[in-house]
């Protein structure tokens, strides 16, 4: 099925639950956000002349996970072209194109496409590197194998291991990037940014006013946003709230988790200042920017404490020492070389893919697709039922800088009723209802 078929809603597929409902082009979109997800979405919508109002709980934008000083931009790739890798491959090129477009408009943000080296510092990674060479799934400009000598030349410092090199990857300053994308969106005059406004509850307006809901009125039902600054209404609402999305009642059934991460900024020294590429081991080490390298990061599931602590800085240093002992000894970073630390939350999905699209109507899914529990190949033509006018772009995990632009393009296509930039299979891989369908098939819900 191609995009035109899908937009006409003619279910040529036997898996109706993979189909998204047709949306009449929206006129105005409200977004809860302030990070890279909302920046890309706001930019994409306002560029098409759609009015956007953004609600952000903080006094300035990019204070959540997107507030790091430095982040690596690179795709998540496996040895074979599975659906995860295919998404991230496409997303990576899209991210580079979008960020270049923003820079070309004169909005600046620190970045360097200096390449990224995943070092094969242990047996399993050496085998992984061999498997990449064997399957040869990816073009050389995306990823290729290098030996220790090549790795050292690329990194401009001695690296005792070979690895997988991504020549087009690099690092970016996420906070500056997000501000620049929002500035570009504001230049369209279609964006209104409302800061210091925390949305504590959302409710469909008809729910608040009457318990009677007809099918027609349902599709026009707006949302009421309850905030610390009063109430607002939203005809179409998109949640781009990062890990805070977990707190939103309507999304609580979705399998997303908050994973804390702390990164540590280190003062450069003569032994490491010449580093010329991003190094990934179990964590990462970035080239110097303004005399600072970033190392990290920790992964603490279901820990939501945003205070930094010394133990995590030590963990980041220890991780570097464990994976790259010679390099670490040579750099010889001490406690006093720590310039600063930051802890933020990643919004993780179970399958490393974002959740992009309408909030599924779970009870209607259970009714409509019940027979999947007996036969997962049962043919359905019914389009996936969703909660009207409620969308999300969340679950960007540890790769939001790579995935946000393409994910935003998909949602822009959905909200403007224009062709999707990905095929139907990928669309379903990203659809928030994929977990509901999986659970019905596995008989986890009925
Ligand atoms: C330590 C660490 C290191 C990372 N390193 C990398 C990396 O190297 N490369 C990479 O690609 N990714 C990295 N990531 C992941 C990346 O930062 C995230 O995927 C990305 O920033 C998520 O963006 P977001 O817009 O979804 O969420 P966020 O940036 O968290 O933005 C959420 C926004 O929503 C607002 N908000 C939330 N709830 C409400 C509410 N109720 N009302 C109003 N406003 C609300 C917040 O104020 C915030 O502005 C890292 C993450 C961490 C924590």
From TrEMBL:
One of its GO terms (molecular function) is oxidoreductase activity, acting on the CH-NH group of donors. Pfam families: DAO. InterPro entries: FAD-dep_OxRdtase (IPR006076), FAD/NAD-bd_sf (IPR036188), tRNA_S-uridine_synth_MnmC_C (IPR017610). GO terms for cellular component: cytoplasm. GO terms for biological process: methylation; tRNA wobble uridine modification. This is FAD-dependent oxidoreductase. Residues 29-412 form the FAD dependent oxidoreductase domain. It comes from the Bacteria. Coiled coil: none annotated. The keyword Cell inner membrane does not apply. Keywords: Cytoplasm, FAD, Flavoprotein, Methyltransferase, Multifunctional enzyme, Oxidoreductase, S-adenosyl-L-methionine, Transferase, tRNA processing.
